[in-house]
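Thanks for the sequence, V.! I ran Putative proline/betaine transporter right away. Repeating your input here for the record:
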Amino acid sequence: MSTTPATLPASAPVNPKSRVILASLIGTTIEFYDFYVYATAAVLVFPYLFFPTGDPTTALLASFAVFGAAMVARPIGALFFGHFGDRNGRKATLVGALLTMGIATFLIGLLPTYAMIGWFAPLMLVILRLAQGFALGGEWSGAALVATENAPVGKRAWYGTFPQVGAPLGFIIANGLFLIIAFALPSDDPTRPSDAFLEWAWRIPFLFSAVMVIVGLWVRLRLVESEAFTKAVKAKKVEKLPLAAVFKSNWRELILGTFIMLATYVLFYLMTTFTLGYGRAATDAALPGLGFSYNTFILMMIGGVVFFGIFTLASGPWADRHGRRKTLIIVTLAIVIFGFLFVPLLGAGTAGVMIFLIVGFSLMGMTFGPMGALLPELFPTAVRYTGSAFAYNMSSILGAAVAPFIAIWLWTVGGGSPFWVGIYLSSMALITLVALILSRETRDLDLER
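Predicted structure:
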């Protein structure tokens, strides 16, 4: 990438609405697909193939530790891609992030296992996992900016939900593909994948990402720069060092944005990684869980994720009408209450578990949807990519990186009960609530500032 600001024509063309929606949606769908493929494999495959410690709990913790390591790389990716996104434009930066993610995911599908090359296998897995995190650090913010900077007046939150819908879509595609493979290669042991699955079939979802990346590149290469960025270039408002500028002038927004996202991230990864592990754990295991088969529980989770997608889209018009701050305060209060429902719902049989998944994923959609508009709105155009990306991804360290690990530890402390896991979620939601109370409404702010 060049280090000089992009040169734009006197009158930059406008992106058609359909192209804006598709480009912001398809990129994040691919990125979250890649991330979910790893998250599912972290529970289902990697403890057996890359961390064969002899202790199932230790192997699962090691796998989750590598999963969390990617979150550490995300703020670095946010700074890297944010710098070029604010200096050179959103389009080229988004293409670079997508390519990085796609190549890393594809290569994971080609990795030799621990049985083949020993400890080099988990080392290579860590490196590629860090590359995934690095790429995702720059992906989300760029996609959110493409959506919101090209949105019609009064519909920024609605347009901002389209990159957010990539999360539930990516989950459904990734886990749907794993589910098809699991049905095609059934296991005699419901708590363990089949031998064929562990030998070769687990690689298919990782290799399939190459097809999705090609489609995503075709869409994104047809984008033109947003009017907000075009005007910033013409007015010579492009910062030479966006990182220094955002820390100097917008440090308060960085802190608030980080903690506003905290409850979203904790809920996000508890509902996906921890819940998958807890749902499949045998009732008589060292860490007792619900004892569902993989196929059954994934189908239940996909049912819950449908509500994730529906409420993500529903949150946009609501936030445009009532404001981002008011909407998120109400939803965050509901998340606080939801944390206290872990034990009664997860202990109420299949119906209770299904209600738990529907409520949890619905809240996830309502809190995640408005973030596509709120975080970009916190920052002026010259540092918007860097600022929103850094806040979003710093929150990933405080929330997502440690959430699965802390959840398993609390699961252990609770003797197999998820009570303390729910209390952990409620505590993080209270921190987010304080950040929202201290923040201001961003609905009516001018994005061209």
